[in-house]
Structure formats: structure tokens, C-alpha cells
Amino acid sequence: DAKTTQPTSMDCAEGRAANLPCNHSTISGNEYVYWYRQIHSQGPQYIIHGLKNNETNEMASLIITEDRKSSTLILPHATLRDTAVYYCIVRVGAGGTSYGKLTFGQGTILTVHP
Amino acid sequence: SAVISQKPSRDICQRGTSLTIQCQVDSQVTMMFWYRQQPGQSLTLIATANQGSEATYESGFVIDKFPISRPNLTFSTLTVSNMSPEDSSIYLCSVYRDGYTFGSGTRLTVV
Questions:
Q1: Which pairs with CB-CB distance under 8 Å and at least 24 residues apart come from A25-32?
Q2: Does residue A94 belong to the interface with chain B, where contact is any CB pair within 8 Å?
Q3: CB-based contact B102 A107, cutoff 8 Å
Q4: What confidence tens digit (pLDDT) does each residue in A55-93 have?
């Protein structure tokens, strides 16, 4: 699975958009970009994933560059409860029998302040 | 997605003893994954458990230290054997079913 690079930490004001970047310059054509977050003392929580098109769900938006070498997770209106460690993971898409382990990097500590 | 019940949620154990962590899933899954998260660190995969076969361990983890059972498609256990303070971590199980789901973790402190 491709390696990812994320900033160690970021701050965001409550109510503003949080934009979390991720570099994955060695991503392969069949690898997806997944985002998970881990709120203190809890198990990781799925946020969103995508292959090459931008994706949006009720939690966040995922913007993937045209060359797929980087992406940005956007939390449109951050709240204090969004304070967590955010992990960007690149791996072959899961489905049928093609799933397997997730490899976690160090992630980005996002702190949302009042 | 699947719902995972992981027990115990936390424990304090004496060095040299063993602790068995249970992971129960609300639906049948092929693979179950066990992770360790040391204090202040990210998650590291310990092993992948398939029903009916021996678990596959990642580099740096061995069966004698972390024996795993997978008796059926909804249940697995991880044992942390002969514990030392360095084993103090959060241990998490995970499954894939319409996405990866994680248990709430077991916070282990070895004294």
C-alpha cells in the first residue's frame, strides 16, 4: 500500500471549515484514499473514501487532485467534537475478497477551538 | 456496517500474567484484525484472523506472545501472554463488512 504524508497537527476555529491535506505521491491506479478519525480513547471511525472523483457525505468532503498524488479532507463546519486524530490511508479498494488490513500512519491531530 | 462488542474495556494486570480480550461481531465476517496502539502512537496491526485457519502475524509479533483464536465467523480472542509493562497499550479488533469497523478497544495497564 502507498505511503501517505500528513501534517502532524492543525488548528481550526469552531464553525469554520477544516481542510486536512494528505500527500500520496506513490499511489497506484487501483488504490483508494480512505479517511478515518480517532477521537480520544475510542476506536477509529470511518469518514469517507474515494478513488479519483471528489466525494461528499454527511460528515465531510474529499477532494482528490487530478494526478491523484494528494487529497484534502474538508469538514465544512468544524465543531469541538471534531477534535481528533485524522488518518489518511491509501490501499486497494475493499470489496468482495479484495479487502485486507489497514495500515495507519501517524495522522494529523486536529484541534478545534472556540 | 458491523457492530463490534469488545471486552474488557480496560484492565490492570500484574506482570507475568496473561489477559484474553474478546471481540464479538453482530454478523458473520471472514477476516478479523487485531491492532495495538501504544501510548501516544498510531495503530499497528498485530495479526489477521481467519476462521478455520491460523492467524497471520505481522513482523514483530509472534504467536507465543499473542495467541489468537477464531472459533467461528462472529467471534475472536486475542491473548496477551506473560505481560510486561511494555505491553501497556490499547488493543483493538476490527472487521470489514461494508467498510472497516473498529471495536472501542481494551485499555491494558501492566504493573
A1: A25/A69, A25/A70, A26/A2, A27/A2, A27/A68, A27/A69, A27/A90, A28/A2, A28/A92, A30/A92, A30/A93, A31/A1, A31/A2, A31/A90, A31/A91, A31/A92, A31/A93, A32/A90, A32/A91, A32/A92, A32/A93, A32/A94
A2: yes
A3: no
A4: 999 999 999 999 999 999 999 999 999 999 999 998 876
